[in-house]
Amino acid sequence: MLYDKNCLAGKRILITGGGTGIGKGLAHHMASHGAEVVIWGRRTQVLEEAAKEINAECGEKVFFQAVDIRNAESVEAAMADIWEKHGALTGVVNNAAANFIAPTKDLSPRGYEAISSTVMDGAFFTTQAAGRRWIEQGLKGSVVSTLVTWIWTGSPYVVPSSMAKAAVHAMTMSLAVEWARYGIRLNAVAPGPFPTDYAWEMLNPTEDSSVGATQADQVPMGRFGEMSELGNLVLLLLSDGADYITGETICIDGGHHLAAPSTFAGLNSMTDAQWAQAKTAAKAASDKAKAQRSV
Ligand SMILES: CCCCCCCCCCC/C=C/C(=O)SCCNC(=O)CCNC(=O)[C@H](O)C(C)(C)COP(=O)(O)OP(=O)(O)OC[C@H]1O[C@@H](n2cnc3c(N)ncnc32)[C@H](O)[C@@H]1OP(=O)(O)O
Ligand SMILES: NC(=O)C1=CN([C@@H]2O[C@H](COP(=O)(O)OP(=O)(O)OC[C@H]3O[C@@H](n4cnc5c(N)ncnc54)[C@H](OP(=O)(O)O)[C@@H]3O)[C@@H](O)[C@H]2O)C=CC1
């Protein structure tokens, strides 16, 4: 363990999308360093299982709420509930996202909105609901958003995600200045490939769509990132040790985007029939998750 196992004692951190993948890994990392953690997602059962699994190892540290972050009223109600039942948060991780690969010309308005509003509106509603309370109560706070290197490079075939993540990057820099005087810091991380189940089903649904996201040899360091490595970076940004860092987005990708294989440009060769297959495969994964949603 790089950091002392109690270095986050006294911290209370909300992680959106904390029931799966990176969010779940971060919840485990923060809880195992002494923080109390609240996780949000739309599937009660998935959240409950994640909390149970982490708590079996770390004690009763992780709590959950089923919240759709696209809905500002639900976010506000859930935030009020945290403050009332647990106490003030010290940190927020904007991690929830939606994404799938698709030719931009074929995206429907609802498809665009499903991705862009989850990433952009969700991060804004969550940040504002916590920030407003910190400001009213004179409390310090730290916000960390999970972005992606496409904020610098863009990427074809995931245009709503690239656009919305760039917007959260802009929110990070803007509010870092607006809220510095309240002791509220905003930073972000831009991970390269960290294989997770749902993201890979959305981003690499068929053989033909495999162009690098699942190929570790495309990363200059020759391997994918490990959860503990991302966890250590997010932990630092959430901790008092990073009190003078704000408005920054830190890349953690083993050199991936500097070597340039970090976008979906390789999908240019896919045919319409291959795109139709990719959509069917991604939708099957999505529909399975949707059947489990509680909100
Ligand atoms: C080359 C290597 C590059 C490597 C680069 C770096 C490493 C990787 C970087 C990864 C960065 C970011 C990753 C992520 O964000 S992954 C997150 C993945 N997780 C999720 O998406 C979880 C949440 N997902 C969902 O909720 C759903 O899957 C969905 C996104 C579909 C949204 O669900 P919702 O219920 O809101 O929406 P609907 O199902 O009703 O659909 C809305 C409209 O969207 C259309 N749609 C849905 N799926 C597809 C598809 N696969 N293709 C095209 N269109 C799709 C759907 O038809 C609806 O539109 P219409 O009503 O008009 O039909
Ligand atoms: N994996 C990777 O290589 C990379 C990932 N990232 C970023 O990391 C983050 C996590 O991705 P990853 O763990 O891979 O993917 P996951 O699909 O596992 O995580 C996305 C999470 O967001 C939740 N979510 C989606 N929509 C909503 C909503 N409307 N309200 C509340 N929760 C929602 C999902 O839960 P539910 O469906 O139950 O709501 C799910 O837990 C994302 O921001 C992604 O863009 C960035 C770079 C690389």
Automatic annotation (TrEMBL):
Keywords: Fatty acid biosynthesis, Fatty acid metabolism, Lipid biosynthesis, Lipid metabolism, NADP, Oxidoreductase, Peroxisome, Phosphoprotein. It is found in: Peroxisome. It catalyses: (2E)-hexenoyl-CoA + NADPH + H(+) = hexanoyl-CoA + NADP(+); (2E)-tetradecenoyl-CoA + NADPH + H(+) = tetradecanoyl-CoA + NADP(+); a (2E)-enoyl-CoA + NADPH + H(+) = a 2,3-saturated acyl-CoA + NADP(+); (2E)-decenoyl-CoA + NADPH + H(+) = decanoyl-CoA + NADP(+). It comes from the Bacteria. Its EC number is 1.3.1.38. Signal peptide: none annotated. CDD domains: TER_DECR_SDR_a (cd05369). GO terms for biological process: fatty acid biosynthetic process. Pathway: Lipid metabolism. The keyword NADP applies. GO terms for molecular function: trans-2-enoyl-CoA reductase (NADPH) activity. It is an enzyme of class 1 (oxidoreductase). Gene3D superfamilies: NAD(P)-binding Rossmann-like Domain (3.40.50.720). Interacts with PEX5, probably required to target it into peroxisomes. Belongs to the short-chain dehydrogenases/reductases (SDR) family. Participates in chain elongation of fatty acids. Catalyzes the reduction of trans-2-enoyl-CoAs of varying chain lengths from 6:1 to 16:1, having maximum activity with 10:1 CoA. Has no 2,4-dienoyl-CoA reductase activity. This is Peroxisomal trans-2-enoyl-CoA reductase.
